[in-house]
Amino acid sequence: MQIKKTAVVWFTNNLRIEDNKPLYEACAKYENVIGVYCFNKSDFNKTQFGFKKIEKFRAKFLLETVKDLSKNLLKLNISLFTFFSLPEKIIPQFCCQHNADVLFFQNEFTQEELNTIKAITQKLPKKTAVNSYYDQFLFRPESIPFQINDIPEIFTNFRKEIEKNAKVYNTLSITSKADSNFIKVDTPIPTLKDLGFQDFELNTNTAFPFQGGETNAYKRLNHYFFISRKLSFYKKTRNGLLGIDYSSKFSPWLANGSLSVRTIYWQVKKYEQEHGKNQSTYWMIFELIWRDYFKFLSLKHQNNLFKLTGIKQLNYNWKRDAHLIRSWIDGKTSNQFVNANMIELKLTGWMSNRGRQNVASFFAKDLLLDWRIGAAYFESLLIDFDVHSNYGNWQYVSGVGNDPRNRKFNVQLQSQRYDATGKYRSTWLQHNLF
Ligand SMILES: Cc1cc2nc3c(=O)[nH]c(=O)nc-3n(C[C@H](O)[C@H](O)[C@H](O)COP(=O)(O)OP(=O)(O)OC[C@H]3O[C@@H](n4cnc5c(N)ncnc54)[C@H](O)[C@@H]3O)c2cc1C
């Protein structure tokens, strides 16, 4: 039964209307629903290693995403108020101003986000209840066959158990609210300049020429699955380096939640019914389980995700040589394959998975540099930065995470194997003018 009360939905990394549990629950249970998003000012400051948390590529993508969310919410008669401030300041004030009975949001579990959530809940008006959900997983934590502390340290053991004994929930669709739910929005979405960046054009060679937002996420999914049917070849092409279609490119939309991981899962199932199942269609789900796995490891190991000794608590003799770090960032190391990848990242905010593994291995295992600095640089530049996947993968490659074999990439051999003709290197090395 619906009660005549007001819910505020605070959007964070769940910038979509489809399959959004907090939004769905708010709409199902409350008559008045209001959306709010706060561009967090502290994300645009420099952190301990000297990089901004968010550089221009992710900032642009985020702005496009929030604009699209606002349009999509409007179709449901829901207003989205946006601010450029600190969420812990804005959200309690907003709830107070709108006399909110409840605040809905997506649960986060890394320290800074937990601090923000704590600060918000402490300042909320007495009458405002809190409802939050883990909504970023393929397999919700309450549905997996492990206690969080017993999550296996080896991916294969996790995957096999999950594949047998966990279920993926159906996606949720929201019905429109009444016209009267919409209230005039008097908080304009900030511009790129407001966030501290100049406007810029995308590099013509970028492998990620897409815009942010749920609408574009669906276009991309439709293209990759049903129009081009590239999904049927994904396993063969996923180690590619050039062009838009060697892999799905879903990660930036997944990272800010403008695409639900469960939507992808069910679209793979639909595709398999229509066009046949093969190793490639399975491999897409396999990779999405990797994504979940890093989130579960982060839930289990908490702040060890960010510590130099990693989740394995291993001590190595890491260096912090500023000259070596700069040469890696600028694509001026002794290895041209590493250099090409680093230039691609600097000019586009994108790098392939193969590239990421190589440059991270080179940073940590050849140059022996403090892996957290490399991870912080990735955090700043990547359009698809996701805290769990980034820090988890960096640990994995650096030998302090969950790689049972602690492998080192031979970057020379890797470039011969994956860039045999040198086309990838020449595409990006021509820009090496810094
Ligand atoms: C050092 C390092 C840092 C990384 N940092 C990030 C990051 O910040 N954000 C991020 O989303 N991914 C990160 N990855 C994982 C991976 O490189 C990207 O997810 C992938 O390249 C995104 O391209 P895609 O969407 O076309 O992937 P596809 O190959 O099409 O895969 C589909 C989806 O599966 C998931 N996935 C694939 N590979 C991985 C993986 N190794 N770990 C976790 N999930 C995976 C992603 O959600 C991806 O969108 C990192 C990998 C390394 C080695």
Automatic annotation (TrEMBL):
InterPro entries to which the protein is assigned, alphabetical: Cry_DASH, Crypto/Photolyase_FAD-like_sf, Crypto/Photolyase_N_sf, Cryptochr/Photolyase_FAD-bd, Cryptochrome/DNA_photolyase_1, DNA_photolyase_N, Rossmann-like_a/b/a_fold
Domain Photolyase/cryptochrome alpha/beta residue range list: 5-138
Alphabetical keyword list: Chromophore, FAD, Flavoprotein
Cofactor dependence: (6R)-5,10-methylene-5,6,7,8-tetrahydrofolate; FAD
Cofactor binding comment, as recorded: Binds 1 5,10-methenyltetrahydrofolate (MTHF) per subunit. Binds 1 FAD per subunit.
Function: May have a photoreceptor function.
Family to which this protein belongs: Belongs to the DNA photolyase class-1 family.
Protein name per its UniProtKB record: Cryptochrome DASH
Lineage: Bacteria, Pseudomonadati, Bacteroidota, Flavobacteriia, Flavobacteriales
